[in-house]
Design a protein that fits this description.
Residues 1-22 form the signal peptide. It is globular and about 65 Å long. It is mostly helical. It is 41% helix and 9% strand.
């Protein structure tokens, strides 16, 4: 009997060790490991790259920053990192947290799990920077704490946001909960089973159902055939994604048409060089705009503008100026809010799968606003 118990214990240890190795390997290939995420993304959490502004980025781009911020968040302050005195974090304080190029860590096991292996946040989030709480979402509370827009319609004027800020990349929390898009009513709960009736929302599809059964996947990638797990073998993600891609294309076409309608007013831009990250003020626009693509530059909504002579210019939206040096697209112009909505849905990455009804309504409302 004793030998049998010892054998079972040994087997359990072997399985546990094997699972740990497998999880480690999966994590190493995930976006939470800066080996894939990219050194630039991790670097924004350091004082060398951002100075005091690292107090913003480090909250979710580093282990040390997140752990410090989570305690602050639970106390009711979703803003940038603060020091022990409650004042904005200084460079010296950020250095003390380890937010330097020599010490900064990516999103590791310790970021999400405490010393007992339990998640550091579950079920409900405190008020988030994006202006909402996630309630009764299981393990997804931890995901949504970082995967949100940081800002948006909830905290801005819905008719004139007063800025050109873009929704932070990977704002899946906003989309799955139906928050922070313009032209729709997001004060109500959008009935989305993926958020509320799958057990743990994000982690159900991206970890539990994507795993082997012995452990949850830590690639954080949902398998391509995942929809069939709940909806039947004939149901595929493309059934949602193809229509969403069509709606996104229609929004791009409408935005392009509105820009071309006023292209004669576009005289200068603060041109951005994507190769070195530098800006050149008062760059003349020497030919008419032929087409635009919606993107973001340094936290702002931006356009890639192709001119009729083949020149390509990148500019933040607020830096596209007329002959008097005024923005061609003021913040109250629907094109600003339409571009926000486009980037919110585009950068969610699921092409509608996370919240099909909300995604469709947002894009249809955006098209209507651009008429």
């Amino acid at each position: 009997m004793k030998k049998a118990l010892l054998a079972l214990l040994a087997l359990g240890l072997v399985v546990a060790f094997s699972n740990k190795e497998a999880i480690q390997k999966e994590w190493e290939g995930s976006a939470h490991n800066n080996g894939v995420m990219g050194e630039k993304t991790l670097a924004v959490a350091t004082v060398e790259a951002r100075g005091e502004a690292a107090a913003h980025c480090a909250r979710c781009h580093s282990e040390q920053g997140f752990l410090a911020w989570l305690e602050q968040l639970k106390k009711g302050n979703p803003g940038n990192l603060v020091g022990p005195d409650g004042k904005p974090a200084t460079v010296d304080y950020l250095k003390g947290l380890g937010l330097t190029q020599a010490q900064v860590k990516p999103i590791t096991c310790n970021t999400c799990h405490d010393e007992d292996g339990d998640l550091r946040l579950s079920q409900d989030t405190p008020m988030l920077p994006s202006g909402f709480k996630a309630t009764a979402v299981g393990n997804a509370a931890l995901c949504i704490a970082c995967h949100n827009s940081r800002n948006g319609r909830i905290t801005w004027n819905a008719e004139d946001p007063g800025r050109y800020t873009y929704p932070h990349a990977s704002s899946q929390g906003d989309v799955i909960l139906g928050k922070n898009a313009f032209f729709v009513d997001d004060t109500k709960e959008w009935p989305n089973p993926h958020a509320f009736f799958t057990g743990n929302a994000c982690s159900t599809c991206h970890m539990s159902l994507a795993g082997t059964g012995e452990y949850s996947s830590h690639t954080f990638k949902a398998p391509e055939n995942l929809c069939a797990s709940c909806h039947g073998a004939k149901y595929t993600q493309e059934m949602v994604q193809e229509n969403t891609e069509h709606l996104l294309a229609l929004v791009r076409t409408k935005v392009n048409a509105r820009v071309l309608a006023v292209r004669d007013r576009i005289k200068t831009v603060r041109a951005y060089n994507p190769e070195n990250g530098q800006f050149t003020p008062n760059t003349p626009v020497k030919a008419p705009v032929y087409r635009v693509d919606i993107l973001s530059i340094a936290g702002q909504i931006a356009f890639k503008m192709t001119l009729t002579d083949g020149t390509v210019l990148y500019s933040q939206l607020g830096d596209i100026k007329d002959e008097k040096g005024q923005p061609v697209f003021p913040t109250k112009d629907p094109i600003v809010r339409a571009s926000w909505n486009y980037l919110l849905i585009q950068n969610d990455g699921s092409k509608g799968v996370h919240n099909p009804t909300y995604t469709r309504q947002v894009l249809l409302a955006t098209l209507n606003a651009l008429q």
